[in-house]
């Protein structure tokens, strides 16, 4: 399929990508769901970060607003992915509709955002999964050594790096084994993690607020607390005047940004397009993306309402308020720990807390998958050394690209542990994603006119009231990105710390643009000296 075909396939590294379409719709739904908002992991930390930074936020309203904001992005991405179902995603679309310069900027922005995400989830494993599990088990079995190790994995930089490297090495081995095996491991880990999360839901559904308070107070007494620890946590956090309110937009709007940090990526399966069965079917993409989005929305809301029912909003604000001395437990107030306290059954606690060890790997899959495919696509178009486009004929995995990307993740991990907080690191990932989506929105808007020959024969050729759907959803998608940038500037606590650091946002975005341009122009000059005009590559779609 290509209206671009000129018979010049020799311009590419070879006449076939080497990949096989072996990913199913189920694989793609899970791929999106665990990349964008792995429910249990997001509940454990991401959702409740806003309660400490923005007391009074209505998290349910923020999730529903995020649902609406994601709709135009999904419609835009599904149309483009089905029109040009190739490895590389936005890099292929933008380069064939707009220009290779903008394509490298867009692709680099997405890759950098994903690398940030990969680093985040590598760090998440020791800090929010392994560490809390060891502390919980240590508390359960009265083992101070386990508690000490657990605390080290949550606070000591060396321990954090070591714990994260375990996940990076495991992820590298699985990726090299091939796409089919990678998706299989992703699904297995996701199922185990989800079962643990649903066990937490069950504990909260069948427990009672009185029982939780009794169990929490008893545990707190073991660590030196006196009196009613539950009420003391609420009072110590000053949460009495911080009730959730639909009209408290100064708390809820920045919380939308926090939710979108995780949930704005349900279109990420476009990077599976080169290996997805039926990837030229637009409705298939829409179903995949919307299913993962609704999955996340429904179960995030369910999880939050169940926790509020047992624990209470005011307690969650107090427990998440920094410096609240009334909270004396060695376990941080993560979702899975609080759910296990509700019934205080050792076996159930073991299963709930232990299952959270399985969230990081599936969440990392999409975050490393896209940069690997981006490096491959750049190399396939001769922007990078041809060796990086090599694909193992047995496993169909691009081993050189995998090793390159995982080396970058390791370097970024070491830097991020010493230099940034989780919130700042995630916000940078969102801003990088903003650059990608805005450029894709421009390409989508111009697709019907700049590539009319391809558009008319593509699944993207859809109209609403006589207007191309792409020309409706692409401006809306861009406006969503404008809102996210505005939120970072309006509410410095999201990322930049103080208003004086507002210049960081345009500087960071400008840096991505510059690197993306260098990624194109330096190889272009090198190839020109070799007698190769790489611009000719962008006149046709890459081979499958």
TrEMBL record:
PANTHER family recorded: AMINO ACID TRANSPORTER-RELATED (PTHR42770), MEMBRANE PROTEIN (PTHR42770:SF7)
This entry carries the following GO cellular component terms, namely: plasma membrane
**Which residues span the membrane?**
29-53, 59-81, 102-122, 158-176, 188-207, 251-272, 293-311, 334-359, 399-417, 423-447, 468-489, 501-522
Q: Where in the cell is it found?
A: Cell membrane
Give the bilayer topology: Multi-pass membrane protein
Q: What name has this protein been given in UniProt? A: Unannotated protein
Classification via Pfam families? AA_permease_2 (PF13520)
State the taxonomy lineage. unclassified sequences, metagenomes, ecological metagenomes
Extract the InterPro entries matched here.
Answer: AA/rel_permease1, APC_superfamily
What keywords tag this UniProt record?
A: Cell membrane, Membrane, Transmembrane, Transmembrane helix
Q: GO terms for molecular function, please?
A: transmembrane transporter activity
